[in-house]
């Protein structure tokens, strides 16, 4: 999986592409921890347009991100998931935890 982060003002975007699975947990965690550690971020958008597959460990990684962002009141938005990825997120009720646009 490819992960690209960019920050503009107080909002950051993490662009993900490829397979979002256990093999990417270190890179994904490093990307969001760096943003949270920098401080001043109020929103992280996960651009999932390029994600073709995600598994249960990816869902767990999203839950960990949500847990880490909570104390800082950082809003997490999942953006542009492909239909198959959106279906998995909705089946797991992630639309109740995150804004999915």
Q: Helix and strand layout, with pairings?
A:
Elements: E1 2-8, E2 11-20, H1 25-38, E3 43-54, H2 56-69, E4 75-79, H3 83-91, E5 99-100
Parallel strand pairs: 2-3, 3-4, 4-5
Antiparallel strand pairs: 1-2
Helix pairs in contact: 1-2
Features:
about 100 residues, alpha/beta, five-stranded mixed sheet, 5 strands, about 35% helix, globular
Describe the 3D structure.
The protein has 101 residues and is of the alpha/beta class. The protein has a single domain (2-100), classed as 2-Layer Sandwich (Transcription Regulator spoIIAA), CATH 3.30.750.24. Helices cover 37% and strands 36% of the residues. It has three helices and five strands, in the order ββαβαβαβ. It has helices at residues 25-38, 56-69, 83-91, and strands spanning 2-8, 11-20, 43-54, 75-79, 99-100. A five-stranded mixed beta sheet has the order 1-2-3-4-5, with helices on both faces. Helix 1 (25-38) packs parallel to helix 2 (56-69). The longest helix is centred in the first third of the chain and has 14 residues, at 25-38. The chain is globular. The mean pLDDT is 95.
Which percent range describes the beta-strand content? 35-45%
Query: Would you identify the regions where 5 or more consecutive residues have pLDDT less than 50?
Result: none
Mean pLDDT: 95
Give the oligomer, counting copies of the same chain as homo and different chains as hetero.
single chain
In short:
With 101 residues, the chain is of the alpha/beta class. The protein has a single domain (2-100), classed as Transcription Regulator spoIIAA, CATH 3.30.750.24.
């Amino acid at each position: 999986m490819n992960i690209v982060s960019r920050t503009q003002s107080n909002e950051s975007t993490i662009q993900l592409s490829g397979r979002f699975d256990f093999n990417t947990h270190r890179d994904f965690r490093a990307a969001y921890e760096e943003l949270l550690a920098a401080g001043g971020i109020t929103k992280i958008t996960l651009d999932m347009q390029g994600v073709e597959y995600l598994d249960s460990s990816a869902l767990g990684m999203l839950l960990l991100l949500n847990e880490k962002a909570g104390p800082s009141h950082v809003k997490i938005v999942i953006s542009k998931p492909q239909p198959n990825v959106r279906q998995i997120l909705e089946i797991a009720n992630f639309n109740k935890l995150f804004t999915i646009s």
